[in-house]
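Regression report. Comparing outputs from two consecutive submissions.

Submission 1:
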Amino acid sequence: MDEIAINLREAAKKNPKIIVFPEAGDERVLQAIKYIEKEKIAQPLVLSHDNLDPKKQDEFAHIFYERKQVKGVTIEESRELMENPLYYASMMTRYGYADGFVAGAVATSSAVIKAAINCLEIDRSVGLISSCFIMAVPNCPYGEKGVFIYADCGVIPYPTSEQLAGIAISSARFGRDVLGFNPPRVALLSFSTKGSAEGRWVDKIKEAVDIAKSKTDEFPIDGELQADAALVADVAKKKLGDSPVAGKANVLIFPNLDAGNICYKLTQRLANARAIGPIVLGTVQPCSDLSRGCDVDDVIDCTAITVIRAQKKSQEKKVS
């Protein structure tokens, strides 16, 4: 087991939370749940079409209908959605019957994201749902001892400047709260470093940096940066002046989904890196989206991450 998995699982064990798994028919999920129960990483609830509570289905359908009828959703459509364990799990999470859900071993990412968007609360401070991967690169001197956040690699194809700013803030907070990045150092990536190229794509990144900085000063954010300037201190010194991020970034924000998805898969395969996720960002209630190519360890680690995020949410409630 790699170091990052050990750390995530041990953190989850400190206060296991109720996590719903709406894919009871998948053998990888069932194997993971056995381990999760044995190691007390979470309190798992496993859903299938056969064990949904009819009373809760009716309750959730009426709640969903009340929220969505202005968009043309009928009560019959709401009832049909609550026959789907994925939507049922999302509503359980939204209304406090569970602390989070983990899905995607069978369902597509688009199905998981759609359920999250329709059922969970959106974090108003960022205003959008996105995703990230934890990338752990062996024998790597860059980032946080080889650990990085890559975003967005799974949700928004062509983000606007405003959306890139939201992705950057969500990803940095995730790195701080779940991985303990202190601080998260956020680089918005481009083919240009501080004006070495011009054009609307570069301008979009510059605008995103300005927007993100106007919204928060919780952590350093910089861009536009080429990947080498973001990661390598010597290159950063040659390409630009002082920067709190350049040469030491641990949160990498890609300009679009093409770049993010391609880069995480290349890193995973060429550098033999561990890719954990995609993790859904931007919701008040936590959830994780698995890849359909996931293995048992991926399910366990995404569960641990969801537990840690639920722990953080509980702490915030106590403070408020």
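Submission 2:
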Amino acid sequence: MSPNAPTDPVIVNEAFRSFVEQPSFSCLAGKGVVHRGAYAIGTYGVLGSQRSTARLSRDLAAFLDGPPSDPMDFRSYVAVFTHTAADDEDRFEELLWRQLQRLHDADDSAAPWDGGVSDDPEDPAFSFCFAGVALFVVGLAACSSRITRRFRWPALVFNPHDQFHRLRETQRFERVKQVVREREMALQGSLNPNLADFGERSEARQYSGRRAEDDWQCPFHRTQ
């Protein structure tokens, strides 16, 4: 089999649903999205490769351009890279940012950066953007130090930022955050050390799940 050939999408989707539905998965919003079927999933070969980037850029653009299937307008796009060797967190983080950089470079040059966030990864208001949409990215990998992020294959979950704003507008954000953190403490005995609310510290530090050093610098840069 070619190293870029994806695994059967049905198998990948079943594995992802089982992963999210297990009791140890702490993110309630993620559970809700999967329960309502308000997500799309794509299988790719090598994380960060040009071939994967070409397919992912088309699939993610189509997903973001399509109408939400969830009446609450909560949705996620899950990109699973089934032929990627990421045996430690440093390597996974390197590949994650290579993929996001190449995805950005492949983006439509006419697409604006979402006006509600910054394009500077050192800015506390930073968020990755694609097709003009701000996205909070959650990296999953078997090597993750965070139990709730240990998925069989490396994966990137793209979550439109505006849905978190809606949670705040409906006064549900703080309650959801509290419950998730309580579940995380019960599961692992600690919170992700990179956790911070939007605007407190760059969310780039949270994407891979690895504990980022105080002097860590994000390798991403805007090129268009």
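Expected: both submissions complete independently.
Actual: both completed, but the second showed a warning that disappeared on reload.
Relevant detail on submission 2: Helices lie at 9-21, 28-35, 50-65, 89-105, 162-169, 173-188.
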